Amino acid sequence: MNYAVLRKLYDKSVHFLIVASALFGLLVGPFIVYKFLSDPTAGIPAVDELVVINGKIDWIESGDYGVQFGLDGYSMSFVYHSKAGGLQQVSNALSLHQGKQAEVMVKLEDAHGPMDSAIIDLHVFQLVIDGIVIRTYEQTSKAWLEDNKVAPYIGIFFTLAGLILGYHSMFRKSDIVKGEDNE
Prior knowledge:
Blueprint: H1 3-38, E1 51-63, E2 66-71, E3 77-81, H2 87-96, E4 101-106, E5 121-129, E6 132-135, H3 137-148, H4 151-181
Helix pairs in contact: 1-4
């Protein structure tokens, strides 16, 4: 293969990626904006939808986006997400009180996990350890709401990026077609 053929293949594949990215941005961006402007409480269940689960803290696994832990007698894992605020406080409390009695408020209907696994995760919306309130439902939902306020801006970014890439791809396509005519 000579350089001209490779260049033409490269230009076409780059053009395809630009068009695909533009379409992605134009489809996903408005959806994100609509979703979070029409339902700013997305992901936050009402307090009467939550159930209380009690058990001794069995294991803890901290990560960048939350703390996952288990309670004795339950096969599912419990996840306290960073978007719920107070992650360091929750992580420290769980680590310091491993083996102690914990009470969590979760929404059982929101149980989820990897598709190829039997692992089930539940979002934690309130945590009490040994009778000490670590994080209340009100604190968690308030922080979750604050985090949700960022989503429309992300949607606007995707939409604008899609428009810019779409505009750019129209000119890229004409350059590629012109290049084919010159040979």
